[in-house]
Each structure stands twice: as structure tokens, then as C-alpha cells.
Design a protein that fits this description.
Aspartate Aminotransferase, domain 2, Aspartate Aminotransferase, domain 1, 2 domains, 3-stranded antiparallel beta sheet, 15 helices
Length: 383
């Protein structure tokens, strides 16, 4: 019996809503299903404006445009993140400034941010790793003291909270992902959250090829014209219809994933006590969404050997990011502040376990047993 790392979840309404969109004869973006998704996201996050995009990458690119990022502007972010976090700003000529992460949550270490600020710094991009919040009070205070913007990369953070506030709805801007590897999905897809009215109209314009087309359709102008640089960032209505079926069930999806996460957490306590791995840490102020379950293997254990041993038994775990500062692109476009010791350690030791709705208790027990055997086998090879 093979256990894959991920299996996209379907609520059962996706095809029905896609058919409804088709028979409604509106397949381009910003139709009825898009509007439903926008209203749901605004109500859930408290954002002034939510706008669906065709990916989280697109939402981050829109953020860079909204902040008027220009060549040599610096943007502080973790290196332990997906490439889109940096790419969105590099495309505008910005310089990613990589700062180390916290050893507990693997999020941007807020205590290291101010040392990275220079006269060229324009923004801070906290990434909520595994759907667990960064220390947003401290980050927002640093930003306000220094006149900086905050863009939350909440790709993994849909349905997560920080002190009761939805992730993505705390900074000036927030970006969500609905990629099939996430909790709430549309295949490809994302959303930009604009958390202040000042940027909301510009966000609409940038998303609609740099035109005021949305205002035209609302009857606010008699014709739409090119206003500023933008692109086509909105998804089609079929994507929005699929997503609406998921958003309707977002609470249920999250509850089911949390139950699976909790079973792993309990089952792995004994292995943590033995010192062969460390389980994830969720601070008390953070309401997480069970986006992933990872372990940090002991430094003396060969992670690749563990992965290969588990795959031979039909279980597919995976590692995660190669740190951006260690990549060719990171060296070319960015710079580093500090020694990045925690980033390097996490990148070498982190192992993600299968987690998807439908993963049964007996399957989880098998994952844990196979992991224990693989660790023992890797450790014996070092003896």
C-alpha cells in the first residue's frame, strides 16, 4: 500500500459549480463566483479588499507594483521560503535581503530585522511557514518605526490566525495560495488582500492590465482607459467556481486536517523524547491550519537515507526548500545579513510527512512506524 505525500481534496460541489458557471455564459474573470470568493475572503480576513489572482506568485507581483518597488530598493525576507517570495520583487529591480529564521517556528526572526534595515529598505515580507504565524506585533512595530510596508506571504496560511486575526489580514498587503498542494485549493490560484483603502483602487487597476475596467463595469466611469503599469492577474470564472466549493467547506477542511496533524503530533512524542527528531512548535498565540506536519531529524541522521528507506516501504515523505541565499539566483540578486545558521540547519534536517484529507489512522500509524525504522536504519549506518 503506497502512501503519497499529497492528495488533492474535493468537496463534491466543484463540478456542479463549474457547470453552473458554464451555463451562466460567463467564463472570464470577475463573474458571480469570483464575487462570492471576494466577499468570503473579506469577511474572513477583515481586509478592505480581496482580489482573486491566478496564483500567489501573481499576488506577490502585484504587491511589488503597488509598493512601487524600484531598482536597488531592498526587501527584508527569510531565505527559507519559496522562490516567488523573492522573484516578485526582483522582477521590479528590488534586492532581497535575507535574514535568518527562528529555531522554534522556522519563521522570520523578528529580533534580526532591524539590523538589516538600511536607507534603501522599503518593505518586510514575513512568511508564515507551515501556516504558523510570524510574530506579527513585533514585525508591525518595527515597520511602523522605520516607515516600512509589510507584505504577508501567507501562501500556507489560509484559515490560520495570530491572536485571533486572520493571517494575510495584518500587514499592509497579504498573499494567499490556492495551489493544489495547499489546504483550500483551485488547482492554480491565489488572492491579494489589501488591508487599507488607500491601495484598494490601485490594486484593482493593476490587476486589470493597468486599466480602470472594474470601475467601468460598476458604472463609475463612462469608459475605461489605461491608468498605470499592470498586467492580467485575474483567474477565469471556472477557477473561481472550483474555489467557491472549497471556501464553503473551509472550516470542515481545516478541522479534518487538524485531526490528522494532532494524531501525528501525539504519535511522535516518544521519538522526540528519545532525541531522534523534533516535532513542530506552535506558539500559544497562533491558531494554525495543519498545512503540513514536519519533523526536524537529529543532526547526526542522514535525511536522504531516511527518505530513500521510507520510499522503499511505499511511504513518500519530502524535504522542503533549498535556501534562496544558497541558490544561484539568491547570490545574483540578493544579499545576506548574518550567518543564516538556523536556516541552514532547518533546510538540512526538515522532513515533511504525508498529510491529506482521507489519510486514515492506520495509514498514519504505518507512516510513523516506517519513519522509526528508517531513522534506526540510518542511525545504524553511522555506528
Amino acid at each position: 500500500m503506497k502512501i503519497p505525500f499529497n492528495r488533492p481534496y474535493m468537496t463534491g460541489k466543484e463540478l456542479y459549480y463549474i457547470a453552473e458557471a458554464k451555463f451562466g455564459n460567463m467564463l472570464a474573470g470577475d463573474g458571480p463566483f469570483t464575487k462570492r470568493c471576494h466577499h468570503w475572503l473579506e469577511a474572513r480576513t477583515g481586509s478592505a479588499r480581496a482580489l482573486l489572482t491566478h496564483s500567489c506568485t501573481a499576488a506577490l507581483e502585484m504587491s511589488a507594483l503597488l509598493l512601487d518597488i524600484r531598482p536597488v530598493d531592498e526587501i527584508i525576507m527569510p531565505s527559507f521560503t519559496f522562490v516567488s517570495t523573492a522573484n516578485a520583487f526582483v522582477l521590479r529591480g528590488g534586492v532581497p535581503v535575507f535574514v535568518d529564521i527562528r529555531p522554534d517556528t522556522l519563521n522570520l526572526d523578528e529580533k534580526l530585522i532591524e539590523a538589516a534595515i538600511t536607507p534603501r529598505t522599503r518593505a518586510i515580507v514575513p512568511v508564515h511557514y507551515a501556516g504558523v504565524a510570524c510574530e506579527m506585533d513585533a514585525i508591525m512595530a518595527i515597520a511602523r518605526r522605520n516607515g516600512l510596508r509589510v507584505v504577508e506571504d501567507a501562501a500556507q496560511g489560509v484559515m490560520s490566525t495570530y491572536k485571533g486575526k486572520a493571517l494575510g489580514g495584518i500587514g499592509d498587503l497579504g498573499a494567499y495560495s490556492f495551489h493544489e498542494t495547499k489546504n483550500v485549493i483551485s488547482g492554480e490560484g491565489g488572492a491579494l488582500l489589501v488591508n487599507g483603502p488607500a491601495l484598494a483602487q490601485r490594486a484593482e487597476i493593476i490587476r486589470e492590465k493597468g486599466t480602470d475596467r472594474s470601475r467601468f463595469f460598476r458604472g463609475e466611469v463612462d469608459k475605461y482607459t489605461w491608468q498605470e503599469a499592470g498586467s492580467s492577474y485575474l483567474p477565469g470564472e471556472l477557477i473561481a467556481a472550483f474555489l467557491w466549493a472549497q471556501l464553503e467547506e473551509a472550516e470542515t477542511i481545516t478541522a479534518k486536517r487538524l485531526a490528522i496533524w494532532s494524531r501525528y503530533h501525539e504519535a511522535l512524542a516518544g521519538m522526540e523524547a528519545k532525541g531522534v527528531l523534533r516535532r513542530p512548535v506552535v506558539p500559544v498565540d497562533c491558531g494554525h491550519n495543519a498545512h503540513m506536519y514536519y519533523v526536524l531529524l537529529d543532526a547526526g541522521i542522514d535525511r536522504q537515507a531516511v527518505i530513500e528507506a521510507m520510499k522503499r516501504q511505499g511511504v513518500n515523505p519530502v524535504f522542503h526548500y533549498v535556501p534562496l541565499h544558497d541558490s544561484p539566483g539568491g547570490r545574483r540578486y540578493g544579499r545576506v545579513v548574518g550567518d543564516m545558521a538556523v536556516t541552514q540547519t532547518a533546510a538540512a534536517r526538515l522532513l515533511r510527512l504525508p498529510l491529506w484529507i482521507g489519510l486514515g489512522e492506520s495509514q498514519q500509524q504505518r507512516v510513523v512506524a516506517v519513519l522509526a525504522d528508517a531513522i534506526a536504519e540510518a542511525a545504524s549506518g553511522l555506528a
